[in-house]
Write a structure and sequence with these properties.
This protein has one domain (about 15-120). The protein is elongated and about 65 Å long. About 55% of the residues lie in helices and about 0% in strands. It has helices at about 15-25, 60-85, 90-120.
Amino acid sequence: MSDVNSAVEPQERNIKRAIGRGLLLRCPDCGKGKLLHSYLKVNETCDCCGLELHKAKADDGPAYLTILIVGHILAFGLHYSFVTYRPEPMTIVLIGLALTMSSSLLLLPRMKGLIIGFQWAKRMYGL
């Protein structure tokens, strides 16, 4: 007689490792293959282990995380620099725009990798 609870459960995946690999833009399974083949386009499969990466759906999550992180860091920096140094308004605007754009462009693909790694570790997209 078979027990319902004795069914073979899938092996648990290490969430920290998967997220770390995603942040490095690597395959969440093997950590060797590239996750993206252009700025934000996910590869169909991993070149090394064959994991199907195209099933991942990050949608707007990476943009929200990027805005959250960049906004908090730069808001603190803006407040600190304004109180401490009292720079000219145009100086703050130009430096703020440059920092916001560069940090957002740097962080956005990594946030996509983080979300894909999290989805893979939690089996949220059929893997």
